[in-house]
Amino acid sequence: MDKIVILTGAGLSAESGLGTFRDEGGLWAQHRIEDVATPEGFARDPALVHGFYNARRQQAAGAEPNDAHRALARLQRDHPGTVILVTQNVDGLHEKAGSEVIHMHGALDRALCAACGLRWDAAAEMTPRTRCPGCEAKAARPDVVWFGEMPYHMEQIVDHLADCALFAAIGTSGQVYPAAGFVQEASAAGAETVELNLNATDMSRAFDSHHIGPASRIVPAWVESLLP
Ligand code: OAD
Question: How far, in Å, is the centroid of ligand 1 from the Cα of 179?
C-alpha cells in the first residue's frame, strides 16, 4: 500500500467522553485561550494553568479508546510503515489503542521544564512548586504546545505530506494552523484527500471527498474500504 497520512483532532476522542474545543459547550467556550493555552497565561497564573491541565490529564487517564481509534490501530498494524498517524490530540488514546503516533501538540502525560528544556513523565498533579528533576527549577509545565509556540515534529510531518498518496483529516475543525494547511500541502504533492467529520467544516472545500458522521461509525467503515 502507498503511504497514507492521517491527521486526527478532538472529534476522534469525543465519543470516548473527552470534550472538543470548538463544538457547542466545548473547552474554549468554558476557558479563555489566553488564560490557559499561551505562555503569557502560564507566566501570569501558573496555578490556574496547572489546574486546567491536571483536570484534563485526569479525565484522559480515565478514558478508553473508541472504535475509531481501534480501527486506525488495525490499519497501521496491517500495513507496517505505510500509515503515518499525526494527532493534534494530547490525550493518549491512540497509544492505548495500540498505535504509534506523532504528537504535534505534545502530550498531557509529559512534563517540560520551562527553564532547561528537560522532558519527563508528568505526575498526575503538577503545581507551580513542581521541580524539574534535572535543574531543580520550579519551572515544570505541561509538555503541550500553546498558541504562539511551534508545533512539534514539523519537519518529519512535512516530509510525509510530500510523499503520501492519500491524506485524511478526521475529527478536526481545520481552524488551527499549521495542521489546517496539511490538506493543501498534500494536495499540491499529488495526494488524494479525504475528510471524515461529524459535520462539514470551513476546510471541507479543500478535500476531494467526505464521510459525514460520528467517528466511531465512519472511521471503521472507511478503514474497511481501504483494506483489500
Ligand atoms: P475542534 O474542537 O476545533 O474541532 C473538533 C471537530 O470534531 C469539529 O469539526 C467537529 O465537527 C468534529 N467532531 C465532533 N464530534 C465528532 C465525532 N463524534 N465524530 C467525528 N467528528 C466529530 O478540535 P481540533 O480541530 O482538534 O490546540 O482543534 C485543533 C486544536 O485547537 C487543538 O489541538 C487545540 C485547540 O486549540 C492547542 O491547544 C494548541
Answer: 11
